[in-house]
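Two entries, shown back to back:
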Amino acid sequence: MNLIDYVKQNGNKDFKTEKFNDVDALILSIIPYVPFDNIIPAFKRKAILLKDIIKKLDKDLMRAKGVFVGNTFKLIETMASSKRYSDIAFYNYMYIVNTEMQFGALTMKLPDKSTFIAFAGTDTSIVGWEEDFKMAYMYPGASQKYATIYLNNAIKLFDKNIRIGGHSKGGNLAICSAMNTKFYIKPRIKQIYNFDGPGFLKEQIESKEYKTIERKIKMYIPEQSIIGMILYHTPDYKVVKARHFNILQHDVFNWKLDKNGFILSKQNKRSKNLEERLTKKLDNISIPERLNLVENMFNLFKKNDIKDTKEIKINSIFKLFKSFKELDKETKNQLIEFLIIIFIK
């Protein structure tokens, strides 16, 4: 079963009958992907229950946003008619897109009085991937800075039981915000969830800020994870069985569950090899070289009108190689190796 099936099966159990679990965290983590513009105000002390929000969402608009957002809307519809999720209060919705960042977040108050803050991540769009790969040379990025600002403003005096989560880039933002939040908020954070999100530069993983929250991090990846293997991260992650292959497994609606939760599996060799080779590769090149590499890679995608990672097949990679003529030899060789590591081997 997928997430929608899971909610159908378990939605009759309230949080007294069945305590908050990691699947709940994933479900709440992807909700900010849905556009709540003009429905949920930011920082105006006004909360709206999920069962009331669903009446305000435009079904046609949700479908027009693509398969992932469409599936997330179906998930919210199912949640709104369930005992477990219908009375969750939503507030502080934000979504910002500008030349520096794409940032989204939502605060939720659960019936068990706990608070969950979810940060929006990326889907399979090339634009979203580019922001993930910029983390290979930039810290903190604009979204990472804003995540901390958001968390500091969202948490109130009586919020004692706090969880933070996100999928893809949102998982990274969840960790980053917890690392850098105000000293009196940090002890109240119970758990931090990273669902197949990219990691950090080595300097950040070894920092005091990271060490103070490391034990609170829970990370889940699919068997053929790509995004979750970028940069340094906790070694204690769990692997979920998933449908389809490669980047399509980044879509959490392809993750497999049963009535008890995630169906766990083992990371496949390609994903593990990617983790090791990509980290080693980045360790051997300077920050300016990383910037040049990432910029050149995504400029090639844009010049070849590749807008979604679903369009990247082995054949298209070799077609991209023909576009390398304008690059110097060293950059060209690095870029070829980088693309092969990620998309072919």
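entry 2 starts here
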Amino acid sequence: MIRYQKNRLVLASDSKELLEKESEGLPFVCNFNESNVFIGHHIPWHWHEWFEINYTERGSYLLQTPENTVEIHQGEAVYINGSILHAYDFPVDGGYYSLSCDTRFPGGEFGSYLDRKYFSPLLRSRSLTFLHIKPDTERRIRLIGYILQLLDVLREEPRGYELAVRQILGDFLILLSEEAAEILARDQAGNERDLERMKLMLDFVYKNYGDQIGVTEIAQAAGVSSRECTRCFKRTVDRTPVRFLIEYRAQMAASLLLGTGMSISEIAEKCGFMSDSYFSKIFREIYQCTPREYRKEN
């Protein structure tokens, strides 16, 4: 699905764009943005956890990050990594497609085989903020071709189109990793260290999520400070340790709601929630329904 009516951003107080609110449950959202609908022909500074792929259909615009400003022309594309602060200015009338995607969509949860082998080095790179893609080499022309394929699928929405999007997106990201190989090489040592730490910390969360644990205990599992623990989680899974723990508890609770006859109170306690009301609040926030509704509907 491509949306053609977007004229503003839904931002939290910290300038984070809340893409999840407009995705209708899909792990991606695609918009066609026209410069003349934005006040002052400007899209203000914002960021989002999802990565972004833009293709300029007509005109041009200025992409700004804290370190760079680059002009993206008609027929060109740009990849913007997740959690990168950016803004847009339109010196001339123009329009571009913007596809934003959950970092977990191509290869699954952080640490999965596909994620480790193909996607994590790119999607969680600390050196790659964005990549300007001009159709001036064979590989870049292929990259733009993948983007155009994605847009065709999203326009037509054939049966199973979500799977087609995932396949094309995977091909695009693998080829993009080749294009950005020199940049990604700078991250290799740091990423390997983060991966080893994350394995230890995630293993601790998986085994102890039902207990009253927090950042301190998670950090101790890898022998790092609470501050470094938080940095490591943000760099690798785009979440704080506490948020990751909460989401994992909710995921385990959802599994128990469907796979057991335990009461909601028993599930809340088993999954580490301090009270039934807090459990219901978090569950509704993540699954858009109460635990009772989730069990009944599924």
